[in-house]
Amino acid sequence: MSAKFNFRSVNSCLLVFLFTFFTAFGYETDGSPSDNYRIHIDANSKKKAIVECEITLEDDKLYMSPIGANQFPSRWAHFVNDLEAWSMKGEPIKIDTLAGSNWKIHADPGSRIKLKYRINLDHEDFKWSGGIDGAAYARDWGVFYTGRSIFIMNGQQKKDITVEFDIPKKWKVSSPWTNSLSQPLVYSVNNLTTLSDSMFFAGTHEEYRIQRENFELIFAFGGAEIIVQKDKFTSMAEGIMDYYINLMGGVPNPSPEDAFDKSIVILNSSSNTDGEVIGNHISILLKENGDMMSEMIGRFIFAHEFFHLWNGKSFTPAGNDCEWFKEGVTNYYTLKALYHIGFLDKNAYLKTLNDLFYQRYDKDKGVGVYSLTQGDLKHDHWGLIYSGGMFAGIAQDMIIRSSTSNKNSLDNIMRHLYKKYGGTNEGYDLDELESLLSEASETDQAEFFKDHILGTKRIPLYKYLNMGGFDAEETDGSLLVQLKKEQNGPEKELSDGFFGVN
Ligand SMILES: [Zn+2]
Fold first, then answer.
1. What is the whole-number distance in angstroms between the Cα of residue 52 and the centre of ligand 1?
2. pLDDT single digits (tens) 309-345
3. 349: which residues sit within 8 A by CB, 6+ positions away?
4. What pTM was estimated for this model as a whole?
């Protein structure tokens, strides 16, 4: 593993150096000064962040991200205190507080102003529907903020925003932003969306970086219990990353409108296991002294969210009617990845298929009522969209494999979509999926789509597993499945394909 550790070729080092040399931090590409944020955190009062910024006004509105913190009338501004503004000469500027996390500033567009405010890191005193992992929290070893929770912004067009940190000497910052090589705690952020969809951890945590081609995965590990397991996590992540790259034929290749070459995964110990993805980044909390199930869920969250950098970001559905493919097929490859790295054996894989997916499908009241194309229901009907989509993916994989003597599979569809849509702004649609799947299996899938994708007919998962060398039945709300005792050669190939071996 050490040979793979944090390598960078001499050439890419040189490129980074040249890039930094010619891109002066603090200026937009047209030479005008960019917006600059300075975040001060004191070791003795970790639960306060003082933010000072200099911004050039595009209009008279100041705002924080409109996503999240719905439980407060003032949204993210619930945690903002003592917001003040001045002209560059130091004259106070009036600010009116508006509804939500919005303000009106009494200064002319085009003028450059200073802002100062304090964020009280009290987010953990409140209930969060998605969990604290998507908001902000403090630990003994440092602080976690999402961009949403800390940045007050102005305008829409800002580029090359600078974020600087003033933190205790022993601390460091893990963030997905581009670091200035000459100034260790100064970062450049390409636009406001990237700023608000980001997250960072500042403290005495440990960091680990994995580089493949031009893509970098950054891990921040916090808490003694997590740090002792960091080798386990990083070898897991490298194994999963290499499995996905090999499957797809390359590193994530997002649309130019949402370009990224770094993802950060922030892992901290906590009282509960939870995970959230924001932008291209993953925040995971792992329960201290967690059991096998919470270990499984922590890894599952990582492998699922990470696969979205391909299935979701490199190729994207044009509409909600393909959410089942994005979420469900991702679940299928998540299990394959966890099998590939040896975290799950065959029995654990099949048990997870029942415990985590089949059970939720079977109990979901939307199954048989709504169709898989109703992706807008995915939060209320996880079982229908996430499990049902997974079962549609398994069914199609088995159909393709069995009708082509295992020459073709769902893997080919993934590679095709990645190749066709990676690096573009286009998305795939339902008709294209139907024709790709029909071509791959050399059998018309119109009826499958009519019944199980556009229609509301339950997917008989056992039937498709039995095509692939399993003995499966669905009894009393459970999926009972095992490998066929006496598999013939083709059956063995199909079941191996199901586990992601070929
Ligand atoms: Zn997902």
1. 36
2. 999 999 999 999 999 999 999 999 999 999 999 999 9
3. 335, 338, 339, 499
4. 0.88
